[in-house]
Automatic annotation (TrEMBL), chains A, C:
FMN binds at S21, K45, G46, N99, N127, K165, I191, G217, G243, G244, G265, T266. It comes from Desulfurella amilsii. Belongs to the dihydroorotate dehydrogenase family. Type 1 subfamily. Its cofactor is FMN. Its EC number is 1.3.-.-. This is Dihydroorotate dehydrogenase. Residues 4-286 form the Dihydroorotate dehydrogenase catalytic domain. One of its GO terms (cellular component) is cytoplasm.
Automatic annotation (TrEMBL), chains B, D:
Residues 1-94 form the FAD-binding FR-type domain. GO terms for biological process: pyrimidine nucleotide biosynthetic process. It comes from Desulfurella amilsii. This is Dihydroorotate dehydrogenase electron transfer subunit. Its EC number is 1.3.98.1.
Length: 303, 236, 303, 236
């Protein structure tokens, strides 16, 4: 028997497989396919203080081995989340992680502070890829100082495990990860989507209503993997790997690169129960390699 | 889930008739759709939505060859396994009025099942279907209009609905242009109408929020709130 | 009849289709497949002052809809290039563009100065994605000031058309393009490859001999397209679009995004005569759209 | 270029025999290979190299199902078109010595054509082929060794070459482990040897510089400088 259990700060996870924000709804929708209690954890869709409409359609388009999305963080807002979604997690036996964002630091802090009151929530994942209204629209996650201030402020009002979700659209992602570490983040997750676009040659206009979108899916996994690998050499806090994972082999690659846990995103759309298959695949890999504990795999590619 | 392809024959220009074995316990309502994974590769990556035209001995789907996915789909042979999720979406909302089905092109597909269902309940309905040309037609019932006049009445199927009044309820599916024209007609004539819409989809069951359309009540998801919508709700 | 001819500084190109450095050898190798004189231009493989061995194998691996390469700029060096390759271009009726790099500014400048003497060469493409020895290994192309100094210095010794090839592995590529423009570059080409890696789960080690490689191919085209689109709004010099182009539709997307010309890279390996097919496809698109000049297409997606 | 698949049958465990129509003007030398584009999609993206086992009425290729590409290749049927480039690479360099062909597993493929060629020139050669097991064997000539002893001599094919001396020249192709063992044997026994190597390839004709191997004369390209190399040149 191999051990798949992993720990992150004071949390225990049955296995290192999480599902990525924005690709798993509020979690419960997937119960029609399998018992989501079998997952290491569920990261629900990006939550903001107030409800958001999101971007104009069309919002998604397929690209070679990937997809672009410009959902624009559509969500029901804190109040409805607390009254309608949270109670359903009373009976779900896995870690609930809430992905949050705001358009300025104050919004993040208020949201984190209020979510701190709910015992169903294990951790917060802070999405710093959204545009920072006060800084003229550039993403929070592109400036290490802003990340430091943001995460420090959140840590003051929230004692849950704090994970910082980093954007890959930067020159040096490890630098941002270091800023998160200095601000006492418990972990970083990387990568969010790469910015991209597609133009419709019939209309001669950008295809997405929002012009630009985030590229995800198998196409981007070599990029995410490299960012995890290089960040692993620069920080001491755990890394959660995400980006294009579509089978157990790629999941294992992320763990070997230095990820303590991994997230499945776009692949959930293609194969709703892919995360279960990946858990089984990681178990089989460990058995075949005669390694008794998944934690022993983390970062092995650096040796 | 996987099921067996029982038939995949061309029935009109670029149009194929796919029959699948009905998996045990499979339930569906007219108006719902399946998401098909076309091959085992990462290209095409996402599943493609197809309306269930009808389910009795088999699950019937009519599809038009458009791009990457449907070009591969047409090479499936009897006996091959195909991977689907669903059925997803809402069935048509049945109204207590005189019922008209109006379809254009491949949009006729979901209406076939509705007609079949209404017949089984002994509910009378009138069918009007439009195609570009005779060679595009894949139904053998209903009044037909073709743009080039090669079959039925020459012109748009919308013209066939000129005589409707507010005692009618229309279920419509077809290309955007046709649906827009129908909406204007409905405004003018006063009949009520549900229209079945399309959108690029990633999941098919309401979690990706990718298939939004704009309505007077804000963005709605085609896959979960539709695919049929009351026409007065849509902002084009 | 539609016009496909484009101009760049004082150069004329039969059509806007070039072939990308490192994917077309020294050009002549492709003559076995078609007459390379039909191309808008040929950009030959990265040249350095002295011959270079390149990186240890394995050097390439396939990824979803893409490939990673870590060739490491293997090349025969200036002397052999001048004596063996250049004379063959006397009889080839297309623009020869030489892609150059150095490990420090002085090397670039010397190379550019010496290449300035050869009439067979129409333009130089300056590859600033290679590691800068003096700046501790970070690429030249990540620092706008370094790019400014480098290009200004090259312009002093070389009066050929100067194209600056930009790396996408930066937070703000338009900023680097602006630096190139300030230094009087004649054009920028973007994008070079995205950095990525793959780990072999059998050996638990990075697959490539050099660990990291450059991701190219269809997978990356939405990223390259977006960078061209945003750079077009920030600079006035022509943009040459490159990254994942594999058919005429994607080529046209790049032109609509703002590229005056485009380069075909990885697709040359898959289909050696793809560049000809893309020229024909662009012509057909213009005919179908009843546009009589490819120059009228440039940047239309911004309207 | 495209040609027609004439046969694609399984001939041993995971091993298929692909026969292609010989295109007009097609020339080849034993030792060369073709690059096949497996489908029209971007996945798998790159062409895959396969040795030409032999050309007479047809182009013969033997291939083993390994991963993405070969799993699709095996579904090709008689009459399908397949897209190739090549032939690329150098033919085997013929030596004026007593000739031995030594192949392991699918590495036997290119030696079939060499044997055929030598026979046609009335040059005597001795063939030694190794497989894991009887079920992997796809040749009906030569001396066979299998690791499990189910066919021919039990053990490695390398053991069959113990009697060679410096009057012999060996052409070898097979897995890395076997080739390394052969190199040691060659050092010990003094025979000369050319070995055919593999590498991931993007282009197949010397332009991508991706297929490099390390030699005492610096990096060389398997596709252009090989695929066969004098064994003394290789740095493992
Ligand atoms: C609920 C629902 C039910 C449906 N039912 C049916 C049915 O019963 N029968 C049927 O034939 N079809 C049906 N469709 C439509 C069907 O899903 C599409 O025709 C199919 O997905 C096309 O897939 P493809 O891979 O062949 O084409 P793709 O290559 O994916 O192209 C499909 C379309 O996507 C858009 N698109 C994708 N990429 C781009 C780009 N780069 N630029 C511009 N546009 C782009 C275009 O509109 C294009 O025509 C239905 C759709 C929905 C939403
Ligand atoms: C000159 C030459 C001649 C050849 N002749 C023959 C022949 O006659 N018959 C034959 O059967 N084969 C032959 N081969 C080998 C054949 O080309 C390969 O088996 C084939 O390309 C496999 O393709 P695939 O898509 O099925 O496998 P892939 O999925 O591409 O995997 C193939 C191999 O690539 C490597 N690889 C790719 N990605 C990774 C990764 N992420 N991590 C680790 N390793 C990876 C591995 O070694 C893997 O086994 C020849 C090769 C060369 C170079
Ligand atoms: C439709 C969609 C919506 C997403 N929404 C969010 C979000 O709300 N918050 C967030 O941090 N990341 C979001 N992401 C990014 C994913 O969580 C993930 O980081 C990214 O898709 C890369 O992983 P993948 O390639 O496995 O999908 C979204 C991705 C997709 C495809
Ligand atoms: C094998 C290989 C070698 C390359 N060598 C160079 C080079 O020497 N100089 C350079 O500027 N770009 C080089 N590139 C980058 C390409 O010119 C191009 O910018 C990149 O591959 C993206 O385009 P593509 O997706 O069409 O291949 C190389 C790319 C590949 C795949
Ligand atoms: S397709 Fe995902 S929400 Fe509708
Ligand atoms: S495969 Fe491209 S150089 Fe050998």
């Amino acid at each position: 028997m191999v051990n798949l259990e992993v720990k992150l700060s004071n949390l225990r996870f049955k296995n290192p497989v999480l599902v990525a924000s924005g690709t798993f709804g509020w979690g419960i929708e997937y119960n029609r396919f399998f018992d989501i209690g079998l997952l290491g954890g569920v990261i629900v869709k990006g939550l903001s203080l107030n409800p958001r409409q999101g971007n104009p359609p069309p919002r998604i388009v397929e690209t070679p081995c990937g997809m672009l999305n410009s959902i624009g963080l559509q969500n029901i807002g804190l109040e409805k989340f607390v009254s309608e979604v949270l109670p359903q997690f009373d009976s779900i036996r896995t870690n609930l992680i809430v992905n949050i964002y705001g358009s300025e630091i104050g919004e993040f802090v208020e949201l984190a502070g209020r979510l701190n009151n709910y015992k169903q929530i294990a951790a917060l994942e802070i999405n710093v890829s959204c545009p920072n209204v006060k800084a003229g629209g550039a993403a929070f996650g592109k400036d290490p100082e802003v990340v430091f201030v943001l995460i420090s402020s959140i840590k003051k009002v929230c004692d849950k495990t704090i994970i910082v979700k980093l954007t890959p659209n930067v020159t040096d992602i490890a630098l941002i990860a270091q800023a998160a570490q200095s601000a006492k983040a418990d972990a970083v997750s990387l990568i969010n989507t790469l910015t991209g676009m597609i133009i419709d040659t019939k209309t001669k206009k950008p295809f997405l209503g929002n012009k630009f979108g985030g590229l995800s899916g198998p196409a981007i996994y070599p990029v995410g993997l490299k960012m995890v690998y290089e960040t692993y050499e620069k920080v001491n806090i755990p890394i959660i790997g995400v980006g294009g994972i579509y089978n157990a082999d790629v999941a294992v690659q992320y763990i070997l690169a230095g990820a303590s846990m991994i997230q499945i995103g776009t692949a959930n759309f293609v194969e709703p129960d892919i995360s279960l298959k990946i858990i089984e695949g990681i178990r089989r890999y460990l058995e075949d390699e005669e390694i008794d504990d998944v934690n022993k795999l983390v970062g092995l590619a650096h040796n | 889930m996987k099921t067996i392809v029982l038939n995949n024959d061309q029935v009109a220009k670029d149009t194929y008739y796919l029959q699948l074995q009905v998996p045990e316990g499979f339930k569906y309502e007219p108006g719902q759709f399946l998401m098909l994974k076309i091959n085992k590769l990462n290209e095409p990556l996402l599943r493609r939505p197809f309306s269930i035209a009808k389910v009795d001995e088999t699950i019937d789907i009519y599809y038009k060859v458009i791009g990457l996915g449907t070009n591969i789909l047409k090479s499936y042979k009897k006996g091959d396994l195909i991977d689907f999720t669903g059925p997803f979406g809402n069935g048509f909302d049945l109204r207590n009025k005189r019922i008209v089905l109006c379809g254009g092109g491949i949009g006729v597909a979901p209406l076939i099942g509705l007609k079949y269902f209404l017949d089984s309940k002994n509910i009378t309905s009138h069918c009007f279907f439009g195609f570009n040309s005779k060679e595009d037609c894949f139904v053998d019932f209903g009044e037909i209009a073709t743009l080039d006049g090669s079959l039925g009445k020459k012109g748009s199927v919308v013209d066939l609905l000129e005589d409707l009044d507010n005692s009618f309820h229309v279920y419509a599916c077809g290309p955007k242009g046709m649906l827009k024209a129908l909406c204007e007609l409905a405004d003018r004539k006063g009949f009520s109408m549900d229209i079945s819409l399309e959108s690029n989809m990633a999941c098919g069951f309401g979690v990706c929020l990718g298939c939004s359309i704009n309505t007077i009540n804000g963005y709605k998801q085609v896959c979960k709130d539709g695919p049929a919508f009351n026409y007065t709700e849509i902002i084009w």
